[in-house]
Amino acid sequence: MTSDETMTVTGTGTGSAAGTAAGTVGETGWKVAAEAFTTPDATVLRRAYYAEVAGRYWKRSVTEAEIDQGLLDFPDDELTAPTGRFVVGRLGGLPLACGGIRLLDPATAELTRVYVDPRARGTGGGAALLEALEEAGRALGAERVRLDTRSDLVEARALYGRHGYAEIPAYSSGPYAEHWFEKPLR
Fold it and tell me: What does the buried/exposed string (b/e) look like for 70-80 if buried means 16 or more CB atoms within 10 Å of the residue's CB?
């Protein structure tokens, strides 16, 4: 699958991976499709993701210059074929969610940059992203998916728990990794 092909997802919010290769709109109205992380919509979403996670960490608003530097310090180059994917979720045609997945090793994929615009939270976007990203992980050959997150990102931790991710011992280190999760991809 190329970075601009549509992912298989229904966006039902149920955790089901049913759908069509056309990326059908599901019961929640979300459509999630693979997209290069450099497109205008993906860039706006990645900037919003960084502004939110950095702002919550620093407990203040983040400047545009800080966002620029953060995107340079933490590039998304691994979120392209053949070892990764980036997806954008749209609700009513508006780009309101994004996420990435990359291979850590041939059997293990890692989620990153999972973000839903605050205006669209609670509408099934997080579940639709996870469905698409997990399907992308399977397509990459992964048998399991992992992620790390911070303690203050309670909504993210709750989302992962609701969708079958279990806390595991640390598999990585870094200043922003405080909780680690894993889910088998069957």
Answer: bbeeeebebbb
